[in-house]
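== Protein entry: sequence and backbone fold ==
=== Local backbone shapes as whole numbers ===
==== Amino acids and backbone structure tokens ====
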Amino acid sequence: MVIDWGMTIRKIIVYGALFILFMIAIGFLMLMGVNAYLIALMAGGFLFIQYFFSDKLVLWSTGARILEENEAPKLHSIVENLAAEMDIPKPKVAVVQNDIPNAFATGRDKRHAVVAVTTGILNRLNEREMRGVLAHELSHIKNRDMFVVTFASFIVSIVSYVVYFVFTMLFSRDERNYGASMLAWLVSMLFSNTIGVIIINTVSRYREYGADRGSALTTRDPDALISALRKISGGDYNREDAMGLESAKALCISPIARSVMELSSTHPSIEKRIAYLERIKSEL
């Protein structure tokens, strides 16, 4: 397998920066005199909940239903064969009753993973294209990067708390100063919904490039994924279907809505992804 060192180095920089940001936040809390045991309890509690329950919440919120093998034998067969090629356990397979053509993988590790597809994607793609899409999702599982978005969200939560703590200290000398507390809360929410979103979305975009590469190298057929991306991107869908996938938007193979600015997008543009796949095709 040919390693894309440029993409690998950029991922290391992004994930390393994420970890450094986390350590700075924890260090600042300790510097401000917050009890180390309290920090460990809070951080560990947040991480435990997100690690063990975020996938269940995603499946529940999207209405995903686990499919038995006899319900979708062809789909199960594709997933089983791809999992064998990638040398990972076969994940569970689920379907989401949603007309938006999309797919996502979730789960805390390789042995507790689920690949979900919408009825919309099943109705639009042929078997070759579905193989490319499912190889993309299984690459997320193989790369262990499903947890990366969860970890990024966790760090943003911790840093938001630090921002709240700092602004409370700066503006409130009186514990009963509710105006200062409200200001601190608003600033922390502003951080989590601006800088925090940018951090999470940047991590999410690098995941997509890695999974696209994994799909191309596993199937040896980048054109299959290119064709699938062209079919499933850029459509106009009703608000109800879009809201149905909102909780999984960072995990989906295709963005649910186009974003004006790349920084606010969970995915690279389809044009950039296709150009990247074309480069991989030339390597193959």
Observations:
- Strands lie at 65-66, 92-96, 103-107, 113-118.
- The two ends are 10 Å apart (CA to CA).
- Residues 169 and 184 are 9 Å apart (CA to CA).
- The longest helix spans residues 5-31.
